[in-house]
Specification:
The protein has 139 residues and is of the alpha+beta class. Helices cover 24% and strands 33% of the residues. The protein has one domain: Aminopeptidase (3-Layer(aba) Sandwich).
Length: 139
């Protein structure tokens, strides 16, 4: 079930993403199973063209449902009208990288040596026209 409670989703994600801080403009969509949050998406840094997305989930939980993915991409593209969604992943986090690429995000840039482990931070982007989860009107 979809959850739009910023406090609950942020608390869930803060325990799973080290260094995650709450921002004034932050919005959230969570997924709940049997009364427990099992996944969350936070959005921040909104501008007319881009929003930053953060994702966290309980390992092994069945949360990648079409309904949830549609909601997570409809909000930035259809409600907010941004042209792109950006996210960043440490190069060493191969699971998160594979997840982003599976969803359709593409590598756009690397911040050399910027990760806590000394590796690269990879910037991933999904552009509106590349999103397969919602029918996005073209501008």
């Amino acid at each position: 079930m979809l959850v739009y409670d910023l406090d609950a989703v942020h608390a869930f994600m803060k325990g799973r993403i080290p260094g995650l801080h709450r921002c004034d403009d932050m919005q959230a969509i969570g997924w709940e199973e049997r009364g427990q949050l099992v996944a969350g998406v936070l959005y921040e840094g909104f501008n007319p063209h881009n929003v930053w997305m953060h994702v966290a989930a309980v390992p092994g939980a069945r949360w990648m449902r079409r309904e949830y993915l549609r909601a997570c991409f409809a909000y930035p593209f259809l409600v907010c009208g941004v042209e792109r969604i950006s996210g960043y992943v440490n190069e060493s986090n191969w699971q998160a990288r594979g997840f982003d690429e599976h969803l359709g995000f593409k590598e756009e840039a690397r911040l050399r040596g910027a990760a806590p482990d000394g590796g690269d931070v990879i910037i991933y982007v999904m552009r509106r026209e590349d999103c397969r989860y919602v029918q996005v009107p073209q501008h």
